[in-house]
Amino acid sequence: MKPGKSTIRPVHVLIVDDHPMTRAGLAHMINHQPDMIVSGEAESAAQALAALEANEPDLMLVDITMPGKGGLELIKDIKAMRPGLPVLVVSMHDESLYADRVLRAGARGYISKHEGGEKLMGAIRHVLSGKIYVSETMSAHILEIFSGGHTTPNRSSIESLSDREFEVFQLMGQGLSARQIAERLHLSGKTIDAHRSKIKDKLKMKTSAELIAFAARWNADQSVTKEKEEQK
Predict the structure, then answer these.
(1) HSE on the CB side for 138, CA within 13 Å?
(2) CA-CA distances (angstroms) from residue 5 to 11, 14, 31?
(3) Distance of alpha carbon 49 from its chain centroid, rounded?
(4) Which of 85, 116, 159, 220 is deepest in the core (most CB within 10 A)?
(5) Model pTM?
(6) 11-146: what fold?
(7) Above 60 in pLDDT, residue 155?
(8) CA 230, 231, 232: angle at the middle one, nearest 5?
(9) Digit-coded pLDDT (tens) for 94-119
(10) 3-class DSSP state for residue 166?
């Protein structure tokens, strides 16, 4: 052994994101840390679960939106397979809509992609130390929810959707039909119809056409927000 060479195993990180450039950027930052290494990459939930078994990572970085199964369901699968494995969500989506969802799904933190590398590494180390990471604003919001100061009736209509309903709502906004959503989520058509009915009730929409139009507008607004964040 060479003098001064560390024998401590570096932290192995698995990156899950469907954008190659994002994965490359994250890998570059992590591999330049003296005590970390990227042990694997995946662009879908299916690849992520296979890589989880093959790489035995110490931390997973997961995006929310991916082809096929989404990030929320993937996090639940990860927690079922490896309950103690910390997951940090790195996403462009609105933190106020997703942070509490990913924490309830089992993730240990949420950070926006537009945050700088220093903040990202700080979030990674925060999560690796056993703590939960969200922004200061979101932390106050979550504490308010758990303290009872922010009750369910006051939550926005979108936030009232379950994770699965929220996923169906997103896909509706992307223009997918009930059959296409069923195929994407590997569910039956009747199950999707039941979800759509519950979503319509929760969002107080009178017709399916009204619901689809609302979902499309919401999805368009999210896309505009994402483009603005990417341009920063």
Answers:
(1) 18
(2) 16, 25, 17
(3) 15
(4) 85
(5) 0.71
(6) Rossmann fold (3.40.50)
(7) no
(8) 95
(9) 777 788 888 888 999 999 888 888 89
(10) helix
